[in-house]
Amino acid sequence: MIHIVFQEADTYTLQKAIELDNTLQGEIMHIKDDYAVGPLHLLDEPEGWQQRRDWWKMLLTHSPYTEQLDMVDDKLTLHTLMEKLDADNTLHAWIWMGQNQHDVCGYFWLMTKLKAYQGRIFVLYMNNLPFINEKGGIFYPTALYEIQPKEFLKAKKLARPITLSEFEVDPDEWKKLCTENSMVRMLEGGKKIVSNEATYYDKEIINTVSAEPQKLQKVLGNLFSKAKVKTGDVFLVWRMKEMAGYGALELQGDWEKGWKEITVKLAGVKAIEENVSTNE
């Protein structure tokens, strides 16, 4: 079988699970783009794909992940997957999804490409399901990497073939998201993805930043731990740059030396009120 995941940390967790259970043995493929953010307009066309690459290139500049754009080629991953399925008609692909917009949006993108393999594509969706954590308590994971490898042995029982009906309906959901072409997409339960403006996280950023300069990395850490923001750090830093552009934040430091040199603080109160109030 082939396993498909949408987050790098998931690949390591799943590999450990495979080491515990030979029946899970198979290649792991990683869909790397985060389709929960960024432009989707005409993504099936070369110009749409290039627009998305250009957008990511802008965001990745001066980040710790400058090499990542060249590594992300989901079209090549998809092509390789289809080649393998064509070469062996007994081969199955398992799509593993956590309950988060990153995984679900990646799943929707895949669903537009794999209808010809209906009956051989399975899904395992950890939707509102309880698992045991390292301390023995029950919790509801939103990402696969939060699940202990031994718990995957239980999760494998969830595998089911994607139905013909889903292959009809889910690509329509993806087409709707592409038409809306928002900058942020959020999961509202089940597989319901809702489009939001690029400013969706701005209020949380404002509430996390103080009037005193803080290191950018500390602000990001607080956004993930205290505000529990569910998007990537690259997107959040881009939003901070945009907010500095309209005068809500002040960013100081040499970007050429990387994020570790950057500090963030609140700026004009009026600018904050005018721009953040629109998101309430």
From TrEMBL:
InterPro entries: DUF1835, DUF3658. Residues 2-124 form the DUF1835 domain. It comes from the Bacteria. Pfam families: DUF1835 (PF08874), DUF3658 (PF12395). Residues 157-255 form the DUF3658 domain. This is DUF1835 domain-containing protein. The lineage of its organism: Bacteria, Pseudomonadati, Bacteroidota, Chitinophagia, Chitinophagales.
